[in-house]
Amino acid sequence: MLNLSLSATPAGEGLSIRHPHKLSSYNSGITTSTLFPRRKNAVFLTTPRRDRSKNICFNVKAQYLTPQEQNHQQQRFSSYESPFPSQPGQLPPRVYVGYSVYKGKAALTVEPRPPEFSPLDSGAFKLSKEGFVLLQFAPASGVRQYDWGRKQVFSLSVTEIGNIISLGARDSCEFFHDPFKGKSDEGRVRKVLKVEPLPDGSGHFFNLSVQNKLTNVDESIYIPITKAEFAVLVSSFNFVVPYLLGWHTFASSIKPEDANRANNTNPRSGAEFEWSR
């Protein structure tokens, strides 16, 4: 295992590397040192790398770790993989995350919702419903206060998320939802979300209009989103889309023996036939 570290030092000091490869592969001017004589698989090399604009040299250290040190490193970092460990036999606790934007006239929260899976007779699971991102708009009721009792919600599908991700600085998009489409109350609730560029090019407007004849609501809530806030949304959307599609569960379930068994069961599947052309 190779461990790297980088530090800036005053001019005149050098690049420090511990590496077991032969010195013949390096250029002249590199010297060896025995600062670490107990590591027989390590040598110490130095060479200056100067940033002339700032008159600074950088030190880079590379060290091969022993098996014991590798195990210690893995134990250190494994604790960061799951900040909420569960007891044996228990499901991990559910975690809620989101991103919020607060402005003078409204607030917006953005929260992912997971996909749903249904069991098959074979014991496997199949995606039954894609995940989505829930937008919640709340009008302001005072200075830095918001009336969440009057909030309006809009669920972004994966494709709609893709539309927002692809927006340029001057692009806009519009989505229409009817929660009761195909049902007896179709047309009685209309939701329209518009994402439009700000006139000065500093970001986008998110405008949600809701007409609900069932509850006599006709409301429009809009909130300006800056370039920085929009960048956070796009980055979050890019990250979460594969999870909304359930692809992470597929990737984590792949096992070499399963792939071999599937290929042996159906050696002339459509994919095999296509790639064997």
UniProtKB/TrEMBL annotation:
Keyword Nucleus: no
GO molecular function terms attached to this record: single-stranded DNA binding
Annotated region (Disordered), positions in chain: 257-277
InterPro entries: ssDNA-bd_transcriptional_reg (IPR009044), Whirly (IPR013742)
UniProt entry tagged with the keyword Transit peptide: yes
One Gene Ontology biological process: defense response
One of the Pfam families matching this protein, by short name: Whirly
Keywords linked to the UniProt accession: DNA-binding, Transit peptide
Signal sequence range: none
Family: Belongs to the Whirly family.
Name used for this protein in its record: Single-stranded DNA-binding protein WHY1, chloroplastic
Lineage: Eukaryota, Viridiplantae, Streptophyta, Embryophyta, Tracheophyta
